[in-house]
Amino acid sequence: MKKTCLGQAYCVKQTFHGQAYCVKKTCLGQAYCVKESGPTGGYKRKDMKMSRLMRNKNGMIMLAVIAAAGVLCGCAKLPEKLNLPAGKAEKTELTVLAAASLTDVCGELEAMYEKEHPGVDLVFSFGASGALQTQIEEGAPADLFFSASTKQMDALKEEGRMEEESITGLLENKIVMIVPAGSDAGITSFEDAAAEKVGMIGLGEPESVPAGQYAEEVFDSLGILDAVKKKANYGQDVRTVLNWVEEGAVDCGVVYATDAYTTEKVEIVAEAPEGSCKKVVYPAGVVKDSRASKEAGKFLEYLGSEEAMEKFEAYGFSRVE
What is the pTM of this model? Predict the structure, then answer.
C-alpha cells in the first residue's frame, strides 16, 4: 500500500495467511500505519495466530526483515537526501571547561549568549581548575578553558595545548576567610586558623584547587602553615568548602569572595592580608584541539564584552587591571 514520508511515496506490502496487513511503524520519527486486514477482516497485532507468531523469537526476526524489506524495496524509494524544515539545522556545540567558582555567573551568561546566538549550544563543565587541566591533557573534548588561576593555563600553554594568542586575563577575585552565619567562635582573621578556637578548617585541595593554593600561600606568609595543615579538611573544589561552612561541618574555610556572596549561610570575617598571596586572576583561552575554534573565539570575545562584564561584576568579580 502506498504511503508518504516527508512528501516522498513509498510502499509497504506484507501478507499473513494470504491477506495484506500492516503493523504500526515509524519513518524518521513519524508514525504510519495502513488498515490491517486478515482472513476474518480487521485485527490487531495480538489477535488470532499473530499473537503466537509475535511471541516466537524467529517470528519476530522474520517480521523485522519483512518490515525492513518493505521500506527498502517498496514500490517507491525514500529520497537519498532529505530537505529538513527550516530551523532544524544542527547547532554548533561549544564545550567550556570552567572553574567551579564561575558556576553561578556562567549559568546566566549561557542563557544570554544562546538567546543572541541561537545557532550555538553552550555546554559547561565546572570543577577544580587543576582537574580540568588534567582532562584537557588527557584529550577530553573541550573548546574553551576558563581557569581560576594562571598556573593551570600556563602549564597547558607550555604543553602546546592552547591557542596561545587567544589567552587573556579576564577577571580578578579575592581570597577570604568565612565562618557559618551566626558563629560565636570568635574567628576574625586568617591568623586565628592556628588558634585553639578553630578545631577544623576547610580548604581546597592544593594539588588541584587554586583557592587551596592561594590559602597555603597566605598561611605560609603568616608562618602558620604547618599548624593549619594539622586541622585542615581538604575539598575537591571551592564549592565543596563553601558547603562545609554553610552546614557547620567546619569552623571556618577559605574561599573566593564571589563564592561567599552566593549564600546568606556564611559570613566573611577577613580578606587575605595585602601581599600574602599572588593576585587572583582568571584567564580564558581557546583549546588547540577545539573542533569549533572560530565559534569558541567569538564566545571568548563575548566574555570580555561590556554586557558580560556587568554580569561578572554583579557576582563580585572585577576586571583585570
Answer: 0.70
